[in-house]
Design brief:
- This protein is 45% helix and 13% strand.
- The protein is built from nine helices and seven strands, in the order βαβαβαβαβααβααβα.
- The chain has helices at residues 21-32, 47-51, 70-84, 108-136, 147-150, 157-177, 209-223, 230-242, 259-266; strands spanning 12-15, 36-41, 60-64, 89-92, 139-144, 182-188, 252-254.
- Helix 4 links the parallel strand 4 and strand 5.
- Helix 1 crosses helix 8, helix 3 runs parallel beside helix 4 and helix 4 (108-136) packs parallel to helix 6.
- The protein is globular, with a radius of gyration of 18 Å.
């Protein structure tokens, strides 16, 4: 289903890391489909960029909320509740690529920070959002994952491990949330020309041989046609937001999946 026929009218969607890359693409598509938005960014400087051009209606609420800061996340959810009445869907998009190179050579602080942002960040956002969803008896949580967490990504180990942990966190959350009418998914959007997959620029010519190696590998994947079109990456995600995949709660899903067929196979469509 193309995004131009997607109807999210009335849904209240919180997107973390919404200032650029995939987060911005998700926000634009969800807004065009009729969703009210709560957009969070890590810094005040990036906040205007998150909402630029997204003139309401639907309404757009913005807030500074670093996913490693519980107080900022709680304040963002409080603001969203005051302005919109609550949040129906949480899209955990904020993340970092982490250190590159052999795991034992990575700086311990940077490795830990990757886990803090990519794994503990989504859980912190859940802590802020889920009480309201539980009170209303409905909601959805979609956390951006990666094929690197489903298999492996040598020399980008902190990122890979963090995404593998996100997949397992999602499986556990889905079972815990079943009695409350809330579904949870981890979602691989494919490699796209934004965020981590964006053209390397200075990394290609930098001093770090491992980042040069990563940039060259990404360029080769791009040239081989292995990158996903951004509209396909966002399109299937919006189907999760809308609820098409609710019978599949707990699953790791991708931009290539036939959501209708997978949901039908459960017998609970």
């Amino acid at each position: 289903m193309s995004q131009d026929t997607m109807d999210l009218t009335g849904l209240r969607v919180l997107v973390t890391g919404a200032a650029g890359g995939l987060g911005r693409a998700i926000a634009e598509a969800a807004h065009a489909a009729g969703a009210h938005l709560v957009l969070t960014t890590r810094t005040a400087d990036s906040l205007p960029r998150a909402a630029a051009g997204l003139d309401g209606p639907p309404e757009v609420v913005t807030a500074v909320a670093d996913v490693t800061n519980d107080a900022e996340l709680a304040a963002a959810v409080k603001l969203a509740t005051e302005r919109l009445g609550g949040i129906d869907v949480l899209v955990n998009n904020a993340g970092v690529s982490g250190p590159v190179g052999p795991a034992w050579e990575n700086g311990p602080a940077e490795w830990r920070h990757t886990l803090e942002v990519n794994l503990e960040g989504p859980l912190a956002a859940c802590r802020a959002v889920l009480p309201g969803m539980i009170e209303r008896g409905q909601g959805r949580v979609v956390t951006i994952s990666s094929h690197a967490g489903h298999t492996r990504w040598p020399y980008v180990s902190a990122y890979s491990v963090s995404k593998a942990a996100v997949n397992k966190l999602t499986e556990n959350l889905a079972i815990e949330l079943l009695p409350h009418g809330i579904t949870a998914f981890s979602y691989h959007p494919g490699m796209v020309n934004v965020g981590l997959g964006a053209p390397a620029g200075e990394d290609q010519d930098g001093d770090d041989p491992w980042r040069r190696r990563l940039s060259s590998w990404l360029d080769a994947q791009r040239e081989a046609g292995r990158f996903a079109p951004l509209d396909a990456a966002v399109g299937n995600l919006l189907r999760l937001v809308r609820g098409d995949a609710d019978p599949l709660t707990g699953r790791y899903l991708t931009y290539e999946d036939d959501i209708d067929a997978l949901a039908a196979a459960t017998g609970h469509v």
